[in-house]
């Protein structure tokens, strides 16, 4: 019988043995090391120790999307350029390529992931690869593969190599039967998108691996994230980024959600800081492993009104995208993040007025520079 099958059988028997319980992390990790994907000589990886005084060695997957480059910049400032590796399946821009380590990594390729983790002695893994809500509905098989199968690879790699793992979840992990105003951390979660289903799966699997195998899993449910220097990857909250670019470029914006669609939102700097803070939080401060975080909540009409305070001639019109509207109508309107605030001191810096000023100033100055060149 091939070795892998023998080991799998042994692992199954160990799990079935009465009294095994496999309740301690040590036994559990050994169980994971019986995974058919694990070569036996890898057993020593578990003894690679990561001293808390060392800088972590971080790998960011899906790092060329809206959030990854900004996170790499923040983490590199804190831990040093060479300690933070960005990865993706896309080709980086010249600027990103020269700003710090970049590596090709397809999260569906388990061996490739393992090689990167081993060769670079990775200790923290930030798992950003995903298909977001709207693009996920347009390609369910791909979303299922990347968001679910890919996550399984990440969980196994993290458990096998004793990594601290961050996986973001989203307001999209809730659905029409969840309380929407406000939405607490613990409540019914029956999302109606493949994106939401995959994120609930990620939350549950991460927490399961934490309790079962001692995996240091940490998860934040992000609201819609708004950034000036990176483009969103195909979500329901994308309008709240596009509106600023169009306001500066043409003074007009056609919104694909209804004027009164209220959704929780956050400026990117708050989101990235929260991510660093939860990763650095002492484990004994975390009463949970998945937290809501929030900053503000607004409708397209309220956002347009705030923009008009600075661009009085700004006009907004509406042309609904039925898919995105149905998704938004099932998502939280306000997010209750009291547990994050109480447990590890989460506090946002940007409310709506600061967000609008920051976005318009940034995009305005970029566009003035572009016009001058
Ligand atoms: N941007 C937002 O408003 C929010 C984002 N999040 C979560 O944060 C994370 C990052 O979000 P964004 O940067 O906005 O996403 P994005 O859609 O902009 O970027 C995702 C990246 O994943 C990469 N990717 C796709 N398939 C891959 C594969 N097989 N292997 C490796 N990489 C692959 C893509 O090339 C892309 O660069 C995601 O998990 C998302 O669900 C959660 C809530 C809100
Ligand atoms: C809120 C999210 O998760 C994302 N921006 C989306 O709209 O899909």
Automatic annotation (TrEMBL):
Superkingdom of origin: Eukaryota
EC number: 1.1.1.103
Pathway: Amino-acid degradation; L-threonine degradation via oxydo-reductase pathway; glycine from L-threonine: step 1/2
Molecular functions per Gene Ontology: L-threonine 3-dehydrogenase activity
Gene Ontology BP term (one): L-threonine catabolic process
Catalyzed reactions per annotation: L-threonine + NAD(+) = (2S)-2-amino-3-oxobutanoate + NADH + H(+)
NAD-dependent epimerase/dehydratase domain boundaries: 58-293
Alphabetical list of PANTHER family matching this protein: L-THREONINE 3-DEHYDROGENASE, L-THREONINE 3-DEHYDROGENASE, MITOCHONDRIAL
Family: Belongs to the NAD(P)-dependent epimerase/dehydratase family.
Its job: Catalyzes the NAD(+)-dependent oxidation of L-threonine to 2-amino-3-ketobutyrate, mediating L-threonine catabolism.
Name used for this protein in its record: L-threonine 3-dehydrogenase, mitochondrial
Organism field: Erpetoichthys calabaricus (Rope fish)
